[in-house]
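Second opinion, please. Pick holes in both lines of this record:
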Amino acid sequence: MSVERKTALFSGINFKQIALFLAVIGPGIITASVDNDAGGITTYTLAGAHFGYSLLWTLIPIAIVLVIVQEMSARMGVVTGKGLSDLIRENFGLKLTVLLTLVLLVANLGNTMAEFAGVAASMEVFHVTKYISVPIAAALVWILVVKGTYSMVEKIFLIASAFYLTYAISGLLANPDWGYVAASTVVPTVSFNPGYLAMVIGLVGATIAPWMQFYIQSSIVDKGIKISEYRYTKLDVIIGCLVTDIVAFFIIVTCAATIYPSGISVESAAEAALALVPLAGQYSSWLFAFGLFNASILAASILPLATAYTICEGMGWDSGIDKKFKDAPQFYTLYTMLIVIGAAIILIPGIPLIEIMVMSQVLNGILLPVILVFMLLLINNKKLMGSYTNGKIYNYISWGLTIAMTLLTLAMIATSIFPGLFM
């Protein structure tokens, strides 16, 4: 190829814009990736194993909801330069902020336990006992954040996010009927079966968690992203949400193509990994288990971090990965406490993990509609957002989604407390 042709080939590429995007990228992709944590992967696994391809269509509206909610959080972080709990404290008072952060603390402690349970379950597929895997995982995630800088930690989180591709490979190894998969993705399957409706609610509940809105806003503030760079942050959010949905898609496809037609009963992602051995081969099983391990350890890092950010901002304490322990003692103490307690409880023999996960889900459900309402009130405050408030159409969509999410959340809470309510 001549020099002239090479020049022509690259003349249309704006390398400055690419460099700016690469500098800004991170918070959106990481937050959305962690959304596919141990609980989320278990939900997608059960959706495919119990209902085949019939729930694939839900991923399209779920992706739209996720993009809208995450974009609003990101926009508030860029424009105000403050975290969500900081804005709630300044605009709605300290008492309400304390109440919200306490509920979030309890919920996220339960979520953190669930992530270490995911670490334990995934490593047991490789015949590693939880008494080895969980302490090592806890030590690694603690050292990473406490000893690292924001830039280093973010790069490691982005690399970990890339390993979600193992689920795509596992899906390809499952050899599904791609024509049927495509049809199931774009043509909704309507069913009023109580189990089907409960799974739809579970998929929505696994998509948007309260901690996500706090974390993405705090990480954007911590990174120091400017308003002039916001379009790249918006793209970061959209890419992250789409990648998250693609991962969920392949998890459902893998289980729908293998476990569903076999009639094998599975109740967790770890059981699904073991069930894949005779159905799709050892490599597919290992990839599925490794994906669960990667998701669990990434979420076990992010959830305590998001909680520490939220509480410190709400209380007006210093926070940030780039700060030393002496500069942000409350931040690092909270982070350490959540990891130690979350990991230690998982090591207790006979601990009721299912009950813990259900209770944390219920608390998340109680918080979510409240957080969405606060977000919409804040983002439409012209004193805070200036010209970056929501437009009318965006507001109609956002409030409609908030009402829908509230109704679904109430249904999710009801089915969590009373499993046979709609039977």
About this structure: The CA atoms of residues 195 and 423 lie 8 Å apart. Confidence is low (pLDDT under 50) at residues 5-10, 19-24.
